Amino acid sequence: MRTLTLKETAAYIAGRIGVAGGDAAKLFTGEAVQLIHRYARGVPRTISVICDNALVTGFAADERPIDVETVREVCGDLDLKISEPMAEPRAMNAAAAPDESSDEEDERRAVAGPVRRL
């Protein structure tokens, strides 16, 4: 099974929350989603565990939306270590300009705000 990209992670979180009847844009900041992706290394089950624990922690603290501090706290409790930004696989394109932005930069921009920007 392959890991999810940052953009796919944001869509996965939004989809899971949507199925439960929630609005992802009101529950996680874009920065929190980015951090969840880095801690989970794109693994869907780990993403779910982090999100579930962050939602419980945020609910207990009356925090909305969940921010990076809560994600860090939860990941620390779970003994997860942050990974370096993950390099996304790219197709080789000889015609691509050298100053063209990377897929990872594009994905970061896509989730820079609340999850609803997807």
Care to describe what's here?
The model is unreliable at 89-102 and 112-118 (pLDDT under 50). α1 (6-19) packs across α2, α2 crosses α3 and α3 (44-60) crosses α4. The chain has one domain (6-87, 100-117): Orthogonal Bundle (Helicase, Ruva Protein, domain 3), CATH 1.10.8. The protein has helices at 6-19, 30-40, 44-60, 68-77, 103-110. The chain is mainly alpha-helical and 118 residues long. The protein contains five helices and no strands.
Approximately what portion of the residues adopt beta-strand conformation? Answer: under 5%
CATH-defined topology: Helicase, Ruva Protein, domain 3
CATH class, anyone?
Answer: Mainly Alpha
How helical, in percent, are the residues? Answer: 40-55%
Per DSSP E runs of 2 or more residues, the count of β-strands stands at: 0
Succession of helices and strands: HHHHH
**Which spans of ≥5 residues are poorly predicted at pLDDT below 50?**
89-102, 112-118
Structural class: mainly alpha
